[in-house]
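Write out a record, fold above all:
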Amino acid sequence: MELSALLTSAGINTAICTILLSLYSILRKQPSNVSVYFGRRLASGRYRQKDPFSLERFVPSPSWILKAWETTEEELLTIGGLDAVAFLRIIVFSIRIFSISAVVCCFIVLPVNYYGKMIHHQHIPRESLEAFTILNVPEGSKWLWCHCLALYIITCAACILLYLEYKSIAKMRLDHIDGSPPKPSHFTVLVRAIPWNPDESYSDSVEKFFTDYHASGYLSHQMVQRSGTVQKLMSDAEKMCRIFKAATGEHSCRQGLMRCGFCGGPPNSFKILSSEPDSVRGKSLGDLDLARRKECAAAFVFFKTRYAAVVASQVLQSSNPMSWVTDMAPDPHDVYWSNLWIPYGQLWIRKIATLMAAIAFMLVFLIPVTVVQGLTQLEQLQQTFPFLRGILKKKYFSQLVTGYLPSVILILAFYAVPPTMMLFSAAEGCISRSGRKKSACCKVLYFTIWNVFFVNVFTGSVIRQLRVFSSVKDIPAQLANAIPLQTSFFMTYVLSSGWASLSCEVMQLFPLLCNVIKKWILRIKDDSPEGTMSFPYHTEMPRVLLFGFLGFTCSILVPLMLPFLLVYFVLAYFVYRNQILNVYVSKYESGGQFWPIVHNTTIFSLVFMQVIALGVFGLRKSPVASGFTIPLFIGTLLFYEYCRQRFLPIFRNHAAEILIKMDRRDEQSGKMEEIYQQLRSAYTHTETCNDSRRSEISNHHEKADSIPDPEHVKPGKKLGQIIGIGSWAVHHSLE
């Protein structure tokens, strides 16, 4: 691929970004698009309607960029929570490290690569991109020490910045826990795999067990009932049967002139039943049996102190590890109710099944990757399809096919990955929505790195892939040869999936389309906050980490990629800040638990970069550079182990020191009784749940967290509500 084809792709994506960002600055000022671009403010009741007739509405302006720049981290922490701040710290870290890498590699490594071989260089736009890679450095060159020096600078700078960020996020997490108001999840333990006793109900078993073994800390408990559409229909059917049986048993038919079509009685012979539950509940003992059958082997157990709850969640409750399994309960808004009734013994089978399904999906995804690889190789494409030779001889068309089309095809295919992985994560049995999103984030990350990088690097056909993997000991050398050959694809992927995707993210194309249909076709003018979305960490975080992985891997091999990556991260800094401020609502909080994923991925990127460099130095016959790379590799692993011992326990466990201080503080202030009262209704999930959520919507001007989860909103209320929820669901399925 020539440099001119790369410039063509850069020009197309720059034009797309400029047009979309300019259009966004106009559309966000239109009053009809409030629910699209100011969903969070609309939900919190802080949006003020502006003059609809101002001419300023139709002029592009960078005001949103200035607002995103001026917002402090404390304000972002208040608005988006610790997860949002941790996500933005990834981008800040990437800007810092790739600024250092770009300066070092573009001014030291790139000239060495370009002038490595004493050959006659063509005009720069006609130069092949391989002329800017390490493949242009001859074997045994003394200038390879420049690459080794750059490798040391990048690794040391990355480790220092990683340590500072890890330390800062860990401190913020501790402060977040210490400074948070009393939450039901602090005092609640989720108990699963409760043993079945035919002589007593699950509720009696829970009360007896925790009264015997946790008498000092046990407060009360609440059983988890089976939920879901099928269970609800069965329960409603059984209740209706009991109502009709009770009604027919009590009523006596009287003969009359006007006969009833059901029983021969007069028209007023049916008794009107009260809508109160007590009118039916007192008829027989069958309802008690129905309630017992709805109970599953899981319960929320409430404790008197935070410390007692944490101790109960971390110790082994029984000699059988598969019974009385305890975990800290998620926040009420974070509970994934439909997974609580899953038998605990099925979880390991579900995890294996989802793993096999993810591998099968990964193999199926080889088809679009193979198509993409065929498009990047123009000569192979002409041999396979001879009738395209005349068209591909046209310079602009060939540049479009090889420089832009492959990355677009792969991006479109990747739209199916996040919703599929979210489905797999839900099938695993996650008990919280944040846990489900975290699991999906890891799956999407592994899937993306494998398919975008490894599959594309090794070959464009499955047969050749198998041949490459047959020689395991030569993998570093093969990667060192293959990565520079894929320079064109990686650069165009950064432009298309990076620059253009950020413009589409800020535009909110699908919610905008749904809003247009609702406002201008269906004529529904109500701006309801029910379709407000939470931040899609499972789609955006893997994308950011993938670009970081590409940046580290290609830094000394293909330094020309670093400026394009740096532009992406700078643009992402403003776009994601704006989205957190205006669009997304923080419905649940994991306390920054995404950061260990970021740290581990970055360490893997550094180690992989060093392995590739070791293969490069071996191919270029530079034993000195290879020898200096080994201590760097060992030092990186030691740094990872130190951080794992120093910071990771903070994200996995709760500090007893902080919990005891919080308990003493609440006892001294007299808040404990109020907390105990709140615990009784905190984890209620019944048919009246939606009614309480609707009451929260009416009071959304008082509290931003009162936005209902779209998954719990009943369909059929009104058409505008359906459009809003449909926008939320499909938007996340496309990301």
Notes: Residues 250-290, 460-470, 686-735 have pLDDT under 50 and may be disordered. The beta strands are 188-192, 218-225, 295-303, 325-328. Residues 15 and 500 are 9 Å apart (CA to CA).
